[in-house]
Amino acid sequence: MIQDIFTIIWKELKEIIQLRGKIKGGLTGILIFACVFGILMPLQAGKEWVTEPIVLLPWAWLPFILCSGIVADCFAGEKERHSLETLLASRLSDTAILFGKLFSTILYGWGLTLICSFLGLITVNIAYGKEGVLFYPTNILVGLVLVTFLVATLASSLGVLVSMKAKTVRQAQQIFSISFIVLFIPLFGIQYLPDSWKIAMRDMFVAADWQSIAIWALLGLALIDAILIMIGAAQFKRKQLITE
Amino acid sequence: MNSAIEIEHLSVYFTGGRTTKKGNPQPSTIHAIEDLSLTVEQGTIFGFLGTNGAGKTTTIRILLGLLEPSQGKAQVFGMDSSRQGAEIREICGALMEHHGLYERLSAYENLEFYGRVWHMPTATRRQRIEELLTNLSLWERRNETVSTWSRGMKQKLAVGRAIMHRPKLIFLDEPTAGLDPQAAAALHADLIKLAKHDGVTVFLTTHNLTEAEQLCRQVGVIRQGRLMALGTPVELKTTLKNNKVIVSGSGFDETILTLIKSLNQVTFAHIEDGHLIIELASGSSTAPLVNLLVGAGVQIEEVRKEIASLEDVFLSLVEVKQ
User: Fold this and answer.
1) Contact (CB<8Å) B109/A238
2) What ipTM was assigned to the predicted interfaces of this complex?
């Protein structure tokens, strides 16, 4: 099983690199992300880029954007290119196919994010590290690794689910975008709350124990990831994918 | 000889894109396969012939455990396809309707991937890839991205992928479609070798009836999900009563034609390009006809009874019963 999952990951990453490794295929986009998150933003933020917990917010976005750029292709793309039936006619189990595709997307989004964060660390050290080597404090480092992993898993598991159901890559991308907007509707709605509620919320934020909130947020994210993965596993039906 | 495939009273119905049981038919139900029964012996090449949409691909999908039968059962090497699909896929290779290659990857990487899928050890895998690509005359182009290749080259590679792990049973859906005659002939030779020497069973669907006639020990003709005929190519050809006689020579004129037409055993006669074409009633002999023509002063050079081809059989089954 593990060997089969690795086989799928090997193939998926090869395909992503073949596509994304070309200028037209998205290499430019990856380089832009690397420049913005690895050079420009660290230069602008200064030492705080590695010392302040607030940096976790921009890092949380990056894996989501990276994963969402490729995940729509994982099943819908194979359907479009007529390679899915041959894959399903092979000896690979449902679990190996599903988790191979899921983990390859996670690895891509999470891996590139960690590379960008390492690049940011180098930039900050070159620009502001005259008094000694600057490094992420343990809590930020752990938070960075966990948050980016959980967000990459969120985008990948949601994307795999959508891609499995969609008939084309375009349809998968559209559904994924809508799901993404639905997820963030509560945030957009905050501005329409009564002023008294907003003040109460602000006071709550000021007085909040951020460490506890972060832990609960990570646990909540992990729970959502687990639920999405379980839904994906339940929805993966070889016989249905064939007739589609 | 043991059977590789046994299908008994298999029916497949689709409602809304999904297979359904016969107990709950709906107006929109499509009958993809209706009461299909056949047996394929191990180590033989079986040809499954039919027009587009006849049910050939659905049958392959059922045999590979990719679809659920509505009724009846299908067994591959004694394993039930609806319950033991995973075990069946373990010992089979398949080239489906589409070549199914990863076009962003190179030819080598495509075979490498499927070699890994079948857990082939690294050294064996590399050796097998080189052997296959060399045999298919693709070794020199192994590192090229498949998307840049012609349809025929992709098809060759897809055939190579299907036999990569030396399966016991190979499903080939239109394997020579898009291949040049040389490549098609090479594939035919390979398939015969696989069946004769390695004991591999080949389940082949094709529109190329000459190919089926050359390769297959047994042939099945399917139309709208129903099996119309099953047997060896020779058996099928003898089922078609073809009583056309072509007489070559000189002295054919309207008088001779009228004389011939007056015979009871002649159903139709005409002169075409200097040849006398005669259609005899079923069971009629040619000898009295020849005697009559000689007696009437016709100079005969050749009398030839036309033999039905598999194509004639196929067309008669597909067209006449429509």
Assistant:
1) no
2) 0.80
